[in-house]
Amino acid sequence: MSLVTHRVLTGFWWIAQEAPRDDPYNQAMALDTLPPPSLDTPLPDPEQHPPARRRSRTRRILRWVGAVLAVLLLVAGGITWWALDRYVFEHVQISDVDAYEQQVYAEREANGQDYTGQSVTTDAGSTTDAGTTIEPVLTDTSYTDADTSITITRYVTGSGSDQVVYYVADIQVSDVTQVLSAFADNQFGQNIVEDTSRIAADNGALLAINGDYYGFRTSGILIRNGVIYRDSGTRTGAAFTLDGELIVYDETTTTAEELLARGVWQTLSFGPALVDGGQVLDGIDQVEVDTNIGNHSIQGNQPRTGIGMISANHFVFVVVDGRSSESAGMTMPEFAQLFVDLGAQTAYNLDGGGSATMYFNGEVVNNPQGRGDERPVSDILYVTA
Fold first, then answer.
1. Measured between alpha carbons, how far is residue 348 from residues 243, 344, 345 in Å?
2. Are 134 and 367 in contact, with CB atoms under 8 Å apart?
3. φ/ψ of residue 353, rounded to 5
4. Backbone phi, psi, residue 97, to 5°
5. Where are the alpha helices (H) located in 22-166, listed in sequence order?
6. Using CA atoms, how far apart are residues 289 and 322, in angstroms rounded to an integer?
7. Beta carbons of 355 and 212 less than 8 angstroms apart
């Protein structure tokens, strides 16, 4: 209980105990304020003061009712303020993420590292074939250039109430640093949100999906674009490494600095991990994330967003529609099996439900929330042309 609440309650208690000093009956009954009566002094007859007694009781009842109502208002107001502060009001920790990342990169360069935090080495045997040129090719569902290949495919399975619609973006890049992350409004903190499509457009993304909604919680390890933002290991995380791998790991056994030293480029902290070593992991139908009041369970048939790795620098981003007559969504085991069927060796579940969104070339590809209405999110993963 806070000091302010304690003082308010104490004040109300004393008010309820006070009796009017001009009331003869209450003066007579307030024995703690009178000297001990002598045997020759008759005690006052309560029956001579029935109106005063009734008034006193009424006043006491009204005071107690007022005290209880005041306490309830204080409690309700405190809970409302806490909820707004925790889940609605923005808490900005870094107001310009782009500038912050450039500052980190510059400091690394000054210390003899490249922008990813790795020591700079010279490979005398490397050469560049300047004679090979591949012109970019962009269609409604694909993009290809010398370094990037993206193909988006829409799938429909089942029928009737069991029909499911999902989208697979098959991505091949020459370097994992082409897989980038961006925060809503170019700021880092809690409750800072924008639509996936808005964040994507602001950052020149060709392909984007919603991320892990990091701003809903304060825990987890958060490395984005090679920069540490949070180091509070809590759950099973996922990481893109500079050698082109997607790995899943236990956050509680390491630190952000250790991961960065091992060549981690991006981390995601949501879960669960779905696939490792090409096999569906056990227990994924029991995992819950963000179990606060009012938050949806991640189990059952839900819209989904997830990432998987087929081989080094070859990834799949998958978004499943749900909560509509057109698409029922997927269970967690079904989602994991989908990644196995796609050939993924590793896969990880991201924030889904109303957040599940895929964006390509200026348009939202899927049907967010079953009604074409994006839910604002904290962050995205994206690839540029």
1. 18, 10, 11
2. no
3. 60, -135
4. -65, -40
5. 24-29, 50-87, 97-110
6. 19
7. no
CB 274 within 8 Å of CB 335:
yes
Q: Whose CA is closest to 273, among 302, 241, 308?
A: 308
Q: Model confidence over 158-200: pLDDT tens digits?
A: 999 999 999 999 999 999 999 999 999 999 999 999 999 999 9
DSSP 93-128: EES-HHHHHHHHHHHHHHTTB-TTSPBP---TT---
Q: Is the pLDDT of residue 150 over 90?
A: yes
**Are 74 and 20 spatial neighbours (Cβ–Cβ below 8 Å)?**
no
Q: Is 272 exposed, middle or buried (0-12, 13-18, 19+ CB in 10 A)?
A: buried
pLDDT at residue number 67:
76
- pLDDT (0 to 100) of residue 68: 80
Residue length of the chain: 385
- Tens digits of per-residue pLDDT, 43-100? 555 555 566 666 677 877 878 877 788 777 777 777 776 566 656 778 999 999 999 9
Which residues share a beta bridge with 247?
Answer: 239
Hey, what amino acid is at 239? A
